[in-house]
Every structure is written in C-alpha cells, then in structure tokens.
Amino acid sequence: MFFRISIPLILLLYHVSALWPIPRSLETGTTLLKLADGFDFKLNFDSPPEDLTNAIARAKDLLMTDNLQILVPDHGESNRGGLEDAKSLSGLTLALADNAPAIRPIATEVTDDLHARDESYTLIVPDNGSDAMLRANSSLGLFRGLTTFGQLWYDLDGTTYTTMAPFTVSNDSPAYPYRGLHLDTSRNFFPVSDIKGTLDGMSWVKMSTFHWHVTDSQSWPLGIAEFLELAEKARTRQEKRSVQTTYKKLLLTQLREEIDNPGHTASIAFSHPEHVACFEGTGDVVLEPPLGQLRLASEATLNFTLDVLTAVASKLPSKFFHTGGDELNQPCYNQDQQTQDELERSGRSLEDAIGDWVDATHDRLRSIGKTPIVWEEMVLEHNITLKNDTVALVWISSDHAASVAAKNVRIVHAPLDHFYLAYTFNPLANISSSQEYLILGGQQLLWTEQSGPENLDPIMWPRAASSAEVFWTGPTLPDGSERVAAIAGRNKMAKTEVLGRIHDLRARLAARGIRAINIQPKYCQLRPERCLNE
Amino acid sequence: MFFRISIPLILLLYHVSALWPIPRSLETGTTLLKLADGFDFKLNFDSPPEDLTNAIARAKDLLMTDNLQILVPDHGESNRGGLEDAKSLSGLTLALADNAPAIRPIATEVTDDLHARDESYTLIVPDNGSDAMLRANSSLGLFRGLTTFGQLWYDLDGTTYTTMAPFTVSNDSPAYPYRGLHLDTSRNFFPVSDIKGTLDGMSWVKMSTFHWHVTDSQSWPLGIAEFLELAEKARTRQEKRSVQTTYKKLLLTQLREEIDNPGHTASIAFSHPEHVACFEGTGDVVLEPPLGQLRLASEATLNFTLDVLTAVASKLPSKFFHTGGDELNQPCYNQDQQTQDELERSGRSLEDAIGDWVDATHDRLRSIGKTPIVWEEMVLEHNITLKNDTVALVWISSDHAASVAAKNVRIVHAPLDHFYLAYTFNPLANISSSQEYLILGGQQLLWTEQSGPENLDPIMWPRAASSAEVFWTGPTLPDGSERVAAIAGRNKMAKTEVLGRIHDLRARLAARGIRAINIQPKYCQLRPERCLNE
Fold first, then answer.
1. Which residue intervals define the domain Beta-hexosaminidase eukaryotic type N-terminal in the entry (chains A, B) (predicted)?
2. Interface list for B 231-270 with A (CB within 8 A)
3. Complex ipTM, two decimals?
C-alpha cells in the first residue's frame, strides 16, 4: 500500500520516520522489510570513482554497525512477529540517470560552482523484496541517496529492518547549495580526528560546506610550506603534530578555509612583528587578547599578506576563499604611529586604505581562480564597493540580510541570534522575490573561546542538524505544508513529527560515535507526542 | 627561602600554584625539587585500612601518569637547567598525629556525623631532598593531604618536578563539611563508569558529598530487592545492566541518595498505578511529563512509600537521607477524586495531609537512624513544622537562605542563581552570626533533562570546582585577604591567581580523563594575566 504523507497520517508515522533532513518529496508505506543476510550494493555502470566506491563501502559498514533500536517504548518488540514473515531486500542498485554526464569523483564535484553542482537523487525501496534502486546524475547525488537509504534501518536482535516500505523519494535535491558548518581552530586546539568526526556528522545530515576558521589572533596552527615560521612561532605544543596533516584530503565535503584579515591576526606578530599594529595596545583597542592586527596601510605588509593568501589558497581545490574582514578595530590603527605615517604619506583615509586592502587581496584571489567570501562588516560597515561575485556571511543579526541584499551581494546566513536550534529560521525573511537568487544558504558556527575537543560534539550535535534541514528541505515539507508555519503554530502532529525525527537522528549519530546530546529525557524521546513545548 | 603568600608575591607565583581548593594556610618557596626515580609513600603506623592503602596506590599512580606540563608559554623549558642540579624527593611519610584516634577506613569515616568528621591534615615538603611529611588525625585527613600533594607536580620530558619547594600546609581543614555535587540519573541514563568518574573528579577537588537524585517521574532506575517491579517497569533498556550495580560500594565519598516524594514520582505508576494521582492529568497539573504524584492522603500509599524508603535507606551507610519534597503540584490533587475523598473522610486539608506525610516519612527514617534532608519548599511553602534535625537544600534562590535560617533549619546552599561558576558566592550573605552554625555547606547540581554521558563532564567541570573552593577554603584566602572581595574588586593579581589556578586544575582533570572544558583560549591559559575580565 502506498500513500503520500499528509497530516492525518503523520500520527502513524512519527515514530518510524528517521530521515534528516526530510526529503523534499517522500512517499512511505508501513510494510516491514528486512535486509537479507547477503545484502549488497550493486552498480549498473563501470569504473566508479574511488571515493564513490569508498562511500559505498562506508554505507555498507554503517548498515551493519548502527544497530539502532527503534525509538518507541517497546523498542520494536511488537515488530518481532511481523519480521518473521517479512520480505528480505537483497540489494540496492546504484544507477546513473539517462543523459547523466560522465561520472567524476565526489571530491571533484564538490569543487564545482555552487549552482552547477547536482546533488539530486531518486530512491525507490519496494516492499516485495525486489532490489531497491538509487538513481542520480552524479557521484554526489548517489552519495546523498546512500545517506538517505542508511537512515531507514533499525535493529531488533540482529535483524536489520525498516517499517517504511515501500519507500520512494523522487528527485530529492537541496533548496540551497550552501549548507555549512564553521569551526574555529585557533582559539583552542582540535586534533584531526575531531575535524574528521565533524565532517562525518556533516555528511550524515547532507551539509555541503566546511568553513574552517583556521587562524586567528590566539594561534596560527596552519603549516604553510612557504611561511613555516607562522606556525612554528604561534602554535601551542599540542598543535605540533597536526600541522603536518593540515592538507591531507578532506573528502566529500566542500572545504572553505578562512585566513581572517586584516583584523584577528595578532598571532602573526609572534613571527613577523613588523607587520602587526598595536600588539601592546591599550585602552579601547582591547577586543579579545592578544591585541594586534595587520598594518593595512603598509605596502610591505600587504605584499606579505598577498603571498600568504596565495600560498594557502592555491593549494585548495575550492572555488571560494574566505578573507574574513570582521571586527576591524579602528582605535588600534589610531594608536599605531607607523600606520598613521603611512596613511599621511599616501594621502589616504583609513577607510580608503581598507578599501585598497580588500580590493588588492580579493583581486589576487580572483587571479588564481578564487571567489572571495567576507563577513558582513565588509559590506555594511565600511565604505567599500565589493565586486558582485563576492559572498557575505551575515552573522551579527538576521535582520542584516536585507541590507546586504540591497547592496546586491550574495548571502550565506550565519546569524548569531538564530544559532541555537534554529529550526524555524526562514531564509527568505525580508528578502524580495527579485533578490531570492542572492541567498546561497546558511551555516552553523562554533567559536571556540570556551570549547575544545571536550565539548565540540555536545555543542554541535544535534543542534547543527537543524540548519541542515532548513537549507536542504527549504520552506515546504513533503506534504506541501509550510515548514516554519507548521512548527511555529499549534499543529501538534507536525511538532511531534519533527521532535521524533531529531531524537531519532541523535540516536543514530550517537551510534556512529558522535557525542550528540539528549535534548529531552529518554521518556520523551520514546514518546515525543507527550513532550511538546507548547 | 620561605615566605608567606601575600599580594606582592602572587605575581611570582600565579603560574606555578596549581592547588584547588587552595589550602586555608599555605607557605611556598620557589625552589625546584624533583621526584626521585624510586619515590614512594611510607607509613609510620601499622595496619592501614584497605581503602587508605588503595588511595595511596592511586596517588602514586597519578604521580606517574599525570604528565602535566606547566601552563606557561614555554611549558617549563626554562626549568630544564635548574632541574639538573635540583634535589630529589625520595619519599612522603604518612603519619598519624599524636593522640589521633584509632585509624578507621575512609568509607567508615565519611559516614560520621558532618561535624564529627576530621578532614584536617598538615603537609610539609622540604627543599633539601629529605622526606616529605603528611600528618593527620584520620584516614580522611591523610586522603585530603594526598590530594594536595598530587597537585604539586609537573612533567618535563619525564622529570616530575615542583617549582614550589619548600612547601608547607599547616592544619588545612574545610570551612564547611558539606561540599556536594548532585546528579539526576532519572531524566536520562548514565552508565556506572560516568558516576565513578564524577566521584573521582569530586575527590580531586575535595568535595565530600554525592547527592544522587536517583529516581524521578521519567524513570526509576534503582533496583530494590523488595520492590523489583519499580525498576522492571520504569527503566529504559539501557538501564538494565546498571540496576545490578547500584549498590556497589561508592568509596571515599559520602553518598546521599534521594527518593523524591510525594511529587516527582510518576514513574511509580508504571508498576503501581493505584498509588499515583493525575497520571493522565490535564491543564495546570502539567509541570514536566509524565504527570503523576503519590496519593499522599492514602494510607495504603503512605505505607507503601514508608516501606520503599526503608528498603532503600536501610541499605545505605549514610546518616542522611533525602526525601525530596520539591514542586508539589496542588492542582493534581484537586483533580484526583480519590485524594479528595480521602481528605474529606479524614477531615484534613491538603496542607494537613502534606504535614502528616512528611512527619511520617521522616519519623520512619529517624527510626532507622537517618536524618532527613528536604528541598526548600518543605520549609518555605508549606505549613509544616520540621523537626530541628532536618536539613534544607536552598535551590530556588540564594535570597531564600535567610528565610530558612529564620526557621532554625540547617542549610545546604544549592541556589540556581549561582550555579554557573559561582566563585564569588558568599555562604554567609544575610546570615546573622548567631545563625552561622546552620550553614552546613553547599553543592553544585546537574539536572539531566538535556544531558547524558555526552555532556556530563563538559557541563560539570571545571564549573563544580568553583563551589568546591568556596566551601573548603571559606571566606579567607591563605594570605588573609577576603576571597570574594579580592575577586569581585579590581585586584588584578588576585584575579590572575584564581584564573591561573583553575586553568591548571582543568588541565590536570583532563590529564586524568575528565572532559573538563576550556574556559578561555589556550593563549589565555598560558598567560592568564592578559585575559582578565575586568
């Protein structure tokens, strides 16, 4: 029996729907189906890229190791009888769609232009035991479909089963291409294993972009062959081992590295004090210790910075590169005699010099094929005309998106005021329909002044999953209802459905080794309908 | 060279003083001293209790495994030359003071009446290589002194050393006997290893009392031989394995178990629905799902509860037992026809029945040698006269302590409004000198609606250390200055000293496997003087 999810049926489904983000189209049944002992993935095309082959092997491994009991009070006991007679699924066939372009590695596809990437897929799991089918135009689409397939399965004493057959996702694809997560590795140290674990978590909720805020005033943990002194002098001992591995491939996710400048650069003073103003500044230059930012009126400092940016950006496959630009401290430059002299000599105001600096650094990046990303201050607080390929991260307030859009600058949402479980965030609030094309997506941020490996996962998960769904699923749930209105209103079934799904996601992340936190007591995780916050 | 810590010298010492809580008297030098290869603990008395022997073995193990580098920018490199010529310490002698009573196990001493316990110790570490001396009147005092000794040591490439010799703590003892930590294991599940780890952390900051909020409405994870059905019906699958181990000895720390009643008892309805009112209640009985509390006007329910309390409390060595009493929901009883009938039949008001319930449960506990502890509502919100052995936990607001003291009830501080890094908390605020004897101490609390093993440590540590020092060290720092005034004021050296010490403690807890979080960037941990919040 097939039916389309609709409000009256959510009540039946909420305990068994474990998909996150929820596909944009979805048809599910209620037939039990189990994985055959010899279950395997099959390909209907030759020569798959190595990273796709690895992703398939990983998906198979997770099917065997998740061992997740269904989150209902009896943990699935009532399915035991039905499972004895249930059909078995022997295989999932991965197929390329007719007219699909030649298959490329996932790691290549994630470096395509944002709007050129194709993450769409169709997944059909019949209830009669015949093979399931996953079809896409790309490796990336097959990878997204594998992720959805992996969320269907529960364990009952060694039997791996779903309660949702037959199951069809037709041409699911993300509402926004940029679905990001930001991690600051300068304020406190993170071992490579934490970064890899975070990338895993991202892939399991179909996030697309890792924004690595790799350096800041507190440390410079990034080893650059041409400028090894930066890391040698401004990293802590813990970081010694990680520098070597910085450029190891971070597969399957788009990596955007950020070298924040000209502010947030005091760590450069440990190796190049000549380039840093107000390192020993006082009074109103204090933002967060240590003080100091690049002497932006100095030609030598600009040239040094251009060379550093080139050395870093040229080694990265991503088309985008983040140049920071937040929280520039003007009193610092007022206190710095060298900067004052250089401004006077060149006949420029500080704002002129900021504009020249941004133009020069961005043009250098463009010359090596990169598109610059900045924090919103570069658009809203300085008198600069950014070229219209630039992307701005709106972080100070969600209210600022409209002002950035008014300047015709493309936007990634990353607002502080919605950082915490922002499920009701509307990416198009205050954006006119003619400006919608400017919205590329959004991302979660973690600054690490008060965190480290000890609380990375507990802060990030399942919180970040919230924006993963906002920017994948977009404004409309698969039943056609408005996502934000359904949750913000008094629709108990819609709230129960989301709450149950995020509890289920948390359990699956935990089963895969991510220390995602409980967001309600276990009692409520088993019975979300009893624990709605009205 | 010997000197007493005073303000001008703190500047020299803040990077090297890693003691937490800081002893109430302290003299330190600046001579380097290293542990000899064959370093060992020695006893000058016979037949040590087994748990003291185990504690000594553990202390020795930590000396070998902490491997903590000193938290300064060069990580101790500048000590390398001096360490070549430094004297070596071959042993620490544990001695009983003249006139000390016969030695008893730590686990026995922690069950003594609060004010009868002797945790005092004297510790002398000479700088000339002769043996160090730890002297106390009790096993518990020796255990506290071992903890202080263990905080003196850093590692430099395999050399274990202190920078503080000669070092003398004279007759250190806690300002308050009750230095507690509270953990709720009903809202979400914790494995025994988490509880043991928490007890370890407590012992490393000299906390004395573990308040185990073991049951609540959401689950009843406590196995009681006489009432196995309670846990069988109201625990989650995860908890199955832990029930067996509930009564395994929790050594070295005073254990206070709480069976919260008559509220917070809905989980009893899974096995004994006849004793629970408003399990399916509606409207203003909703506090937190599931609903339901004990039918306090029912004689059968009271007798059942007395038997449960007896079964639990009689198996525990502690002199105290916590009977809860918080957040009693009166509309629940108004909705429950059985309770209304029973009140009418006995001619009692609800408040009368609450008073009778509390008298009966407390008197039963007294009859088996226990002293009752309650939440503050039992003192402030109900018309009950508690017997004057009762202890109240003041949790809703620190302002309520004075009202509880006015009723002549002993107090443990556990205020919500000071839960977060409460270093400036003053236990005697608004308490007259004639009431000071009522203040037994204070405790940190963790409710677990939104936590579990994933974030237990990150929420608890190093936060809980703050109250550990408030209640051990009391109002006066070893240099004679006022603790709260020194930190709340503009005394940069005092602030730097505390900040450096808590960073150091965090590093030591992390070295011992507790996932304590960074509270500032590593840059600041190495240079606390640059990162004071003014």
1. 19-152
2. 236-238
3. 0.87
